[in-house]
């Protein structure tokens, strides 16, 4: 079977000045994930790499560049699923972690849990040696401006959030019927 990866960088409104950066980021994520597959890596490794690439790219609402919560902090969720055995791992309300998709995978592989949240996820990240990133390093100027706009008395944050949908990656590796998917929604990551 020929390996395949599909990467989704979001379906929200992309302003003209951001279009090229978003395209470049999606292509980069797909190529990085596909490179893993070409070298014989698993679909799980490929989707983690693709989503990690988007988490590191400020053009996307994932990791660095995420929409800020009510307090002006980056707070993220991530989930990953292994199509081979339907195992999944997730984290929610994670702060100061640049790549929550990596932490979600560790939850899947190193614990009997499916989901760790907030302080528990933070303690688990420390125990697993996942490096902390200062919260301010995950905040982009664009995210800060969006957050400030949402503080205005006549703003509609729910409507505003619709512009910043999910990012995701789905892959099939060389092994038959081995599919993996990781999906992010807003600054949260979900499997449908």
TrEMBL record:
It comes from the Eukaryota. One of its GO terms (cellular component) is cytoplasm. One of its GO terms (molecular function) is hydrolase activity. This is Asparaginase and isoaspartyl peptidase 1. Signal peptide: none annotated. Belongs to the Ntn-hydrolase family. Residues 151-170 are annotated as: Disordered. The lineage of its organism: Eukaryota, Metazoa, Chordata, Craniata, Vertebrata. One of its GO terms (biological process) is L-asparagine catabolic process via L-aspartate. InterPro entries: Ntn_hydrolases_N, Peptidase_T2.
């Amino acid at each position: 079977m020929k390996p395949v990866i599909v990467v989704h960088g979001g379906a929200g409104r992309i302003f003209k000045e951001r279009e090229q950066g978003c395209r470049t980021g999606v292509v980069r994520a797909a190529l990085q994930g596909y490179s893993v597959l070409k070298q014989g890596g698993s679909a799980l490794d490929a989707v983690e790499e693709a989503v990690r690439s988007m988490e590191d790219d400020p053009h996307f609402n994932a990791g660095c560049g995420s929409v800020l919560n009510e307090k002006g902090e980056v707070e993220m969720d991530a989930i990953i699923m292994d199509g081979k055995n339907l195992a999944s791992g997730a984290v929610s309300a994670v702060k100061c972690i640049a790549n929550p998709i990596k932490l979600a995978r560790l939850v899947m592989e190193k614990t009997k849990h499916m989901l760790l949240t907030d302080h528990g996820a933070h303690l688990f990240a420390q125990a697993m040696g996942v490096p902390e990133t200062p919260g301010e390093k995950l905040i982009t100027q664009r995210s800060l401006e969006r957050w400030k706009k949402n503080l205005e008395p006549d703003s509609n944050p729910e409507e505003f959030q619709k512009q910043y949908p999910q990012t995701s990656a789905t892959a099939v590796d060389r092994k038959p019927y081995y599919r993996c998917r990781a999906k992010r929604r807003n600054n949260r990551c979900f499997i449908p």
